[in-house]
Amino acid sequence: MDKSEINHAKYLKSAIPFQRMNDDGERHIQKKGGVGGINLHKPQLDKLIECNSPVIDDVKAVLVMDFPSKKSIAYEIYNEKGFTKKELVTEISKAYSIIYDEKEKYEISSRNLSDLELCGILKFQKDNVTYLVTRVESIK
User: Fold this and answer.
1) Measured between alpha carbons, how far is 103 from 86 in angstroms, rounded to an integer?
2) Among the four 6, 15, 56, 122, which has the fewest Cβ within 10 Å?
């Protein structure tokens, strides 16, 4: 997929952050700075801030993942009621697990899935299709 087709300000509808809490209930702050996201290998859904908040009304969406791959990967997700943050994390974690099972095919660098966390999503709408561009960072 060529992400440049949708990655244009006129198609951008919203930005959705994925942040987690510490054990004390405060937002997690990383040592290198920034608010911590949700681990993609073993998401701690009970620590996801606003986990049951509905964020996508659409029944179907296309995940666009381009980190740490050398190319953008499109993956369709479905849910009859739309998606909460918790449901999106579950779908994204599942998609990344599938991709990591075939690392060579997707030209993924040597990072481990456990080293990645979801920090946010940009929601784009083009031609009646919802695209969710993941913002994933390495925690190392």
Assistant:
1) 25
2) 15
Assess whether the previous peptide bond of 68 is cis (omega < 30° from 0).
Answer: yes
Beta bridge partners of 126: 129
CB-CB contact of 67 with 111 (8 Å): no
What whole-number distance in Å separates Cα of residue 70 and Cα of residue 15? 23
What sign does the CA torsion over 79, 85, 87, 90 have? positive
Helix (H) or strand (E) holding 91: helix 85-100
Residue among 37, 125, 112, 25 at smallest CA distance from 68? 112
86's CB contacts (< 8 A; 6+ apart) are 45, 48, 51, 52
The answer to whether 117 and 92 have CB atoms below 8 angstroms apart is: no
Q: Is the CB of residue 74 less than 8 Å from the CB of residue 95?
A: no
CA–CA separation, 100 and 69 (whole Å): 10
Residue 110 identity (one-letter amino acid): S
* pLDDT (tens digit per residue) in 45-73: 999 999 999 999 999 999 999 888 878 89
